[in-house]
Amino acid sequence: MDSLRTRRDPVVTATVVLVHGAFHGGWCWEPVVRALDRRGVPAVAVTLPYSCWQDDVRALRDAVRSVRGTVLLVGHSLGGAIVCAVGDEPAVARLGFVSALVVDPDETVRDRLARRGVAEHLRDGADPAVRAAMSAGDDGNVRIAPGAAGSLFYSDCRPEEVARAVSRLRPISASSLTGRPTAAPWRDKPASYLFCTEDRAVPMDVQEAYAEGLRGHRDRLDASHSPFWSRPSDVAGVLERWAAETAETAETAAAE
């Protein structure tokens, strides 16, 4: 009898494709991928090459095209830009942004934030401390100072977890850092935003400006810039809801 069932019924869901932000890799999503797996939600964490913007776009397109079925494409921080670039793939039924950049092809970040009244000192898209902690090496790649990264990205994590994450950060090409999409699929497809209210890297005013115009859920976590590291179970809970609704929406559209 239905009333006596103790096991959870299977839920139709989309595959979640996860995109990291600057200096990171797919490793940062591993705790969330494990949490989603326990919930029965398939997920793939992509590692971008960070050799140049075009290579990053190509790598993500290949990853999305390798997934069977409907995709929920989720980007964190700078990963939001590449989600905008690849979100036009037919398999992508919903876009997701976690304290992430969202722009139109015909606007700069500064233009977008200025039009939405964000304070001048934040119009580069992040707290000025982030830019101050970045430097270009002789190889032309951009790095971030480890000490600053710890306080900016992982302020709500245990010291040992901060050290583990910071040790895996890597340089990023200037092209990857400044590349911009040529489309705005978030205007045509459902797109949801997860705000991180304790984010020291991308303040709430900036997140709110990025999220303006999205047609999707707006969820919030009292978390740092890296909730995938400090609160992976909570992030997985949000993504599980998004993925289930993504699949339902795609099925409805296919039946019409």
UniProtKB/TrEMBL annotation:
Top-level taxonomic group: Bacteria
Any GO MF annotation of the entry: hydrolase activity
Keyword Kinase: no
Keywords on record: Hydrolase
Keyword match Hydrolase: yes
Domain AB hydrolase-1: 16-236
Name of the molecule in the record: Alpha/beta hydrolase
The organism of origin for this protein: Phytohabitans suffuscus
Lineage: Bacteria, Bacillati, Actinomycetota, Actinomycetes, Micromonosporales
